Amino acid sequence: MRCILFLFLIVAFSGSVSAQVQQSPDKAFALALASGKKVLLVFSGSDWCIPCIRFNKQILSDSTFLRYAGDKLVLLEADFPQRKKIAAPLRLQYDSLAAAFNPQGTFPQIVLLSPQKKLLAYVPCKAETPDGFITTLKQLLQ
Predict the structure, then answer these.
(1) Does the 25-141 domain belong in CATH 3.40.30.10?
(2) Is Signal a UniProt keyword of this protein (predicted)?
(3) So what's the pLDDT on residue 125?
């Protein structure tokens, strides 16, 4: 019984501080409006863009980054895969975001937005560590 309670507490506390990458722009911006957090929008090509795959593995999946983002950001990934199908309504939303914030079609492109979808900054995306990326975000959020 104690073991189950202990596991429940670990799951409850670990889930409450880490950010989750949202796939739905409507949900991401609604969360941002409700929480007052900024939106970190990542344009990605999940099955063909090597730098995107690397960024996802090194930064977006890192527990240190997810804990930081859980306090400060709503994470939104607009994925443009070549093999996987994206539902048409979701694809239209991604296309609209790309027209507004990634007209050159750069991948990966990382953008910091207000909850009202106003551009705050383009976030440099180099081969970085999670700590280096967090430092960059802290500077941009000041």
Answers:
(1) yes
(2) yes
(3) 83
Residue 34 C-beta-side C-alpha neighbours within 13 Å: 7
Residue with tokens 């070549």: 82
Digit-coded pLDDT (tens) for 107-125? 999 999 999 999 999 999 8
d(CA 76, CA 4): 33
Q: Which residues pair with 39 in a beta bridge?
A: 74, 113
Distance CA 39, CA 25 (A): 10
d(CA 65, CA 19): 9
pTM for the predicted model, two decimal places? 0.87
Domain ranges of the chain: 25-141
Comparing 2 with 122, which gets the higher pLDDT?
122
